[in-house]
């Protein structure tokens, strides 16, 4: 694939296609996340954002094109401890009997490749819980938490693994503004430490200053790419407010803040 010089690619999609339920959902998506970059996927409901990230984490098989993680084809990639994934909330919540600390510690276990946690690991778990503002709830079962608090637990779980590539599907959904700011600050620290981030967003919110590139999807394709979207004038941030009801329709370009 032709590429401009830039940071070493951590994730590369080259004309990726994917099908779900017998329907083509990704129609040739190309994008790259370089080391230390933060890339946001934007677009209307149904444009294919979640499918892109689920393809990157190997949950949706790619039917065409190339998808590489840390230089390896995703099909043969085996070092998943380098990747942290926070799925869309609705797919992860509910009926979990574990406590907040146990769920977050599971993230650290992945980093330790299932070897027992040491004192430093336990301290990292407590730090992650504190960062997302749940220190006082650490011993409670996660199913006793609100939706937004649950989301913060999943974020802490991903952060405590200190992954090289952090993938988050709408991490801000249902999270109050204060917690969004906490997440932005935490992400900034991770990125300063060299992490790369690919995340699905509906609006940039407090994460805007962190984002190197916004990739706007429409109908399973990249409609456009915007560098440093925070530098755009207020009101022209790249979001797409409408649902995509008819996937075969011609894509239309819209801008606006949701
Ligand atoms: N399991 C499935 N079977 C069939 N079609 C699916 C399945 N999951 C998703 N789709 C379809 O694939 C398309 C893309 O879905 P996807 O979840 O990737 O969109 P999205 O951009 O993440 O949307 P949202 O903003 O609503 O989360 C949609 O038209 C959706 O209906």
TrEMBL record:
Region (Disordered) location: 228-258
One example GO MF annotation: ATP binding
Keyword Lyase carried by entry: no
Record Pfam families: ABC_tran
Record domain ABC transporter: where: 11-244
InterPro entries: AAA+_ATPase, ABC_transporter-like_ATP-bd, Metal_Ion_Import_ABC, P-loop_NTPase
Keywords: ATP-binding, Nucleotide-binding, Transport
Source species, domain of life: Bacteria
Protein's UniProt name: ATP-binding cassette domain-containing protein
Source organism phylogeny: Bacteria, Bacillati, Actinomycetota, Actinomycetes, Kitasatosporales
């Amino acid at each position: 694939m032709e590429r401009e010089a830039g940071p070493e690619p951590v994730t590369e999609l080259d004309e990726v296609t994917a099908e779900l339920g017998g329907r083509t959902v990704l129609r040739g998506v190309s994008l790259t996340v370089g080391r230390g970059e933060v890339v946001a996927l934007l677009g209307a409901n149904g444009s294919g954002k979640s499918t892109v990230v689920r393809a990157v984490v190997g949950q949706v098989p790619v039917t065409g094109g190339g998808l590489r993680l840390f230089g390896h084809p995703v099909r043969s990639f085996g070092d998943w401890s380098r990747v942290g994934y926070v799925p869309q909330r609705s797919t992860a919540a509910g009926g979990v009997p574990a406590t907040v600390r146990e769920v977050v510690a599971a993230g650290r276990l992945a980093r330790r490749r299932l070897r027992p946690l040491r004192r430093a690991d336990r301290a990292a778990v407590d730090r992650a819980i504190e960062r997302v503002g749940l220190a006082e709830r650490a011993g409670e079962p996660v199913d006793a938490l609100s939706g937004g608090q649950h989301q913060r637990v999943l974020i802490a779980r991903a952060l405590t693994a200190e992954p090289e590539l952090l993938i988050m599907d709408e991490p801000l959904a249902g999270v109050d503004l204060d917690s969004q700011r906490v997440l932005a600050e935490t992400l900034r620290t991770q990125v300063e430490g060299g992490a790369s981030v690919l995340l699905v967003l509906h609006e940039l919110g407090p994460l805007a200053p962190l984002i190197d590139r916004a990739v706007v999807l429409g109908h399973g394709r990249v409609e456009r790419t915007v560098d440093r979207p925070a530098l755009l004038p207020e009101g022209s941030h790249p979001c797409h407010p409408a649902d995509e009801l008819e996937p075969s329709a011609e894509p239309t370009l819209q801008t606006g803040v949701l």
